[in-house]
Amino acid sequence: FKNPMALKTLHKLKNLINYLIYTGKIDEDTKVVIEIARELNDANKRKAIERWQRDKEKENDTIKKTIDAINKECKTDFNREDKNIIDKIRLWEEQKRICIYTGKPIGLSDVLNGVKYDYEHSIPASMSFDNELKNLTIADSYYNREIKKKNIPFDCPNYDKEFEHNGITYSPILSTLQTIFGKIVETEKKIKGKIIKKRNFEKIAH
């Protein structure tokens, strides 16, 4: 149960069962059966995995060169084989070297020094049990510790409007996300009579 995916599943299951109890769908006599799917990789899937692994190796080689450049320019000695360092540079590149919460560029000399920027959970680990890269962000340490704290991005004061704190103006998070990932496209889908709205980022063609 220390597996992050197992913990996340149990968290979702708890919320679902509480909802079913609250709505009177189940009671103390209800039996809950959990089935965990296991699948064998067919030939096509194995090839896809192999191709993905090769692409990752190429990407890691590029990232290692970036670490070398940082060490050379900043007179540091970060280990180019350290997975945590590699993941941090990968996030930095995915964010286009911009802090999502402040909209400010993250400099070459600052990304790895551990002072100005935190390696933080977008959705707090206490809520999501998710330590995967998709839930991690390189964030301005002051903003992360003094403003975001244990909130999710949607609940941050500058989510969709400017916010001033101690004389510093922070750009809207949504604007920064659109700069990084493209414009937001909202779609609607009807499920069991309810309208479900979903937002996706659509890459802008240059």
Blueprint of the fold:
Layout: H1 4-22, H2 43-74, H3 83-94, E1 117-121, H4 125-128, E2 136-140, H5 141-148, E3 163-165, E4 168-170, H6 173-181, E5 183-191, E6 194-202
Antiparallel strand pairs: 1-2, 3-4, 5-6
Helix pairs in contact: 2-3
Q: Quick one: overall form?
A: globular
Low-confidence stretches: none
Please describe the biggest sheet, giving its number of strands, its sense, and whether it closes into a barrel: 2 strands, antiparallel
What's the alpha carbon Rg, rounded to whole Å? 21 Å
Q: Provide the spatial order of strands within the biggest beta sheet.
A: 1-2
Structural class, from secondary structure content? alpha+beta
Q: What is the count of helical runs?
A: 6
Average residue-wise pLDDT: 84
What percent of the residues sit in helical stretches (DSSP H or I)?
40-55%
Q: What are the secondary-structure elements, in order, as H or E?
A: HHHEHEHEEHEE
Strand content: 15-25%
End-to-end separation: 46 Å
Q: Got a strand count?
A: 6
Short description:
The chain contains six helices and six strands, in the order αααβαβαββαββ.
What does this protein look like?
The chain is 41% helix and 17% strand. The strands form three sheets. A two-stranded antiparallel ribbon has the order 1-2. The longest helix is centred in the N-terminal third of the chain and has 32 residues, at 43-74. With 206 residues, it is of the alpha+beta class.
Distinctive features:
206 residues, alpha+beta, 6 helices, 6 strands
